[in-house]
Design goal:
Strand order of the largest sheet: 3-2-1-4-5-6-7
GO molecular function: hexosyltransferase activity; UDP-glycosyltransferase activity
InterPro entries: EryCIII-like_C, EryCIII-like_N, Glycosyltransferase_28, UDP_glucos_trans
Largest sheet: 7 strands, parallel
Structural class: alpha/beta
Family: Belongs to the glycosyltransferase 28 family.
Oligomer: single chain
Number of strands: 13
Biased composition (Basic and acidic residues): 227-242
CATH architecture of the largest domain: 3-Layer(aba) Sandwich
Strand content: 5-15%
Organism: Streptomyces rapamycinicus (strain ATCC 29253 / DSM 41530 / NRRL 5491 / AYB-994)
Shape: globular
Order of helices and strands: EHEHEHHHEHEHEEHEEHEHEHEHEHHHH
C-alpha cells in the first residue's frame, strides 16, 4: 500500500506523523512525505523519503498579527462554543483560517501533481495542511488528519468553526475536482482523553511517541538507544524538532539548605525545566520567575530558545525525567512530553491554542496557566510579574495534588494505543483488500 504524508512545516507539525510513518514502513507499506522544499532536510533526518513540492513564500507563511497575541478574555472551551465568541474573536479565527487556505493554495499544485503520478491509496496530513484533503479528494482516496496535541479539533477551514467551508477553501477544492464538503475520514489524536474537548469528528486516540530528531539508522550507528531516557539535564547533541533555537542548561549556585519555598530541602536537587519555542525566548516575567527559583536553590534546565545561547541539554523528553515542573508556553509537543513524564506544568500562553492547552491542564489539576497577555495588561514591572509566577512555580513544587494529577495524566497517556493500532485503523480505510 502506498501512503502519502504531507505537512506544510517541520517541527511540531512533522514530529507527530513520524511514528505512524515508521510503523507503516515496518508493516511493509510504501511511504513518501510531500513537503515544501524548506522542510525536506527535516524529513530526511527522520529516515523518511521527502518529496519536494515547491517553496512556500514567506508572505504566505507569516501568521496574522491578530493571532500572535490575542487580546481580551476568550470563553472557556470556545472551540465547542462558537456562539459565545464575539465578532472580533471570530475575525481572529477567520484570519487564521484564511492563512492556512493560502498555504494550501501554494502547496496544492505540486502536491496533487505528485499524488496523481504516484497514486497513493491513502493521504495522511497534519491538521493545518488543508492541501492534504484537497489531494485526497482529487484522487478519491481516504484522508487522515494528524493532530499535534491540541485539546480540540480546530476547524479553522470552516466559517465560524462549524459552518460551511471558507470561500477560498471551497474554490480550491473545486479547482481540483474535489467536493468542498469533503472532510478527513479519521483524525489521529495524541491528546490524553481527559484534556481533549468533545468533538463530532471521528477521532482515534494514539499514544504520543517522542522523537529525538534523528533517524533510527543514525541512532544505531551512533550507538544510541532512542527509547531510553538519558539522565535529566545531561548535555547532548540532539536537535528536538518540537523546539526552535538552541537548547541548554543553567544551574544556579545553591547553599544546599533551603528548599524552593524556603523550607527544608529534599534529598537530591530540585530541578525545573524551562522550554520555549518562540525564537525570542521567554518573556521577561518568566525569566524573572526562573531567577527567583534559582535564588532559592532550584536547578533550572533550559531547553529550546529558553537556553539563550547556553550549551545544549538534550531533547525535552530526555530532560524531563527527574524534573519537578515544566515551564513552557503551551505547545502540543511540550504538553504531551510532560504528560508522558508525569511532570506538572506551568503554562504562560501567548497564543490561542496554547491558552486552550493551558486551561485544560489547569482544569485537570496537572498544572497552572496564565495567558501571556495578562502579564502585559496590568503592566507591572517584570520583577513584580515574575514574583507572581514564582509563587505559582513554588506551589507546583510544594503542593502534592499537582504531582498526583500529573502522574494520573501519565497513566492515562501511557494507556493510549500505540502507532501499530493506528496502522491497522488507517489501512482499513483504504479497503479490506489492502
Amino acid at each position: 500500500m502506498r501512503v502519502l504524508f504531507t505537512t506544510w512545516a517541520s517541527g511540531a507539525h512533522l514530529v507527530p506523523m513520524v511514528p505512524l510513518a515508521r510503523a507503516l514502513l515496518g508493516a511493509g507499506h510504501q511511504v513518501r512525505v510531500a513537503v515544501p522544499s524548506e522542510c525536506a532536510a527535516a524529513v530526511a533526518r527522520t529516515g523518511l523519503v521527502p518529496v519536494q513540492i515547491g517553496a512556500l513564500p514567506l508572505a504566505v507563511v507569516r501568521g496574522p498579527d491578530v493571532a500572535r497575541r490575542p487580546r481580551g478574555i476568550w470563553p472557556t472551551e470556545w472551540p465547542v462554543r462558537p456562539a459565545a465568541l464575539t465578532p472580533e474573536q471570530h475575525g481572529v479565527l477567520r484570519a487564521c483560517g484564511d492563512r492556512q487556505v493560502r498555504i494550501a493554495e501554494a502547496m496544492a499544485q505540486g502536491l496533487v501533481a505528485f499524488a496523481r503520478c504516484w497514486q497513493p491509496e491513502l493521504v495522511v496530513h497534519d491538521a493545518g495542511a488543508y492541501a492534504g484533503t484537497v489531494a485526497a479528494g482529487a484522487l478519491g482516496v481516504p484522508a487522515v488528519g494528524q493532530l499535534w496535541g491540541s485539546a480540540a479539533v480546530l476547524r479553522l477551514d470552516r466559517q465560524r468553526l462549524e459552518g460551511p467551508p471558507l470561500p477560498g477553501y471551497a474554490r480550491l477544492m473545486r479547482r481540483y475536482g474535489a467536493d468542498p464538503a469533503r472532510e478527513p475520514d479519521l483524525w489521529l489524536d495524541p491528546c490524553p482523553p481527559s484534556l481533549a474537548l468533545p468533538s463530532r469528528a471521528r477521532r482515534l486516540p494514539v499514544r504520543f511517541v517522542p522523537y529525538d530528531g534523528t533517524s533510527p539508522y543514525e541512532a544505531r550507528r551512533a550507538g544510541a538507544h532512542p527509547a531510553r531516557h538519558e539522565h535529566p539535564g545531561r548535555p547532548g547533541r540532539h536537535e528536538h524538532l518540537g523546539h526552535s533555537g538552541h537548547s541548554g542548561r543553567h544551574t544556579a549556585a545553591s547553599n544546599g539548605r533551603r528548599g524552593p519555598g524556603g523550607g527544608p530541602r529534599r534529598s537530591g536537587p530540585v530541578r525545573v525545566c524551562a522550554a520555549w519555542d518562540d525564537a525570542g525566548g521567554p518573556p521577561d516575567a518568566v525569566r524573572a520567575a526562573l531567577w527567583a527559583a534559582e535564588a532559592r536553590g532550584v536547578e533550572v534546565v533550559r531547553v529550546g530558545s529558553a537556553a539563550e545561547g547556553r550549551p545544549p541539554a538534550g531533547p525535552l523528553h530526555r530532560v524531563l525525567p527527574g524534573c519537578r515542573v515544566l515551564v513552557h508556553q503551551g505547545g502540543g509537543t511540550a504538553v504531551l512530553a510532560a504528560a508522558m513524564a508525569g511532570v506538572p506544568q506551568l503554562v504562560v500562553a501567548p497564543r490561542l491554542e496554547h491558552q486552550l492547552n493551558g486551561a485544560r491542564l489547569a482544569r485537570a489539576g496537572a498544572g497552572m496557566y496564565l495567558p501571556a497577555d495578562a502579564l502585559d495588561a496590568a503592566r507591572p514591572g517584570a520583577r513584580a510579574a515574575g514574583a507572581r509566577l514564582a509563587l505559582d512555580l513554588f506551589a507546583l513544587l510544594e503542593q502534592p495534588s499537582y504531582a498526583a494529577a500529573a502522574h494520573a495524566l501519565r497513566r492515562e497517556a501511557l494507556a493510549m494505543p500505540g502507532p501499530d493500532k493506528a496502522v491497522r485503523a488507517v489501512t482499513r480505510l483504504a479497503g479490506p483488500a489492502v
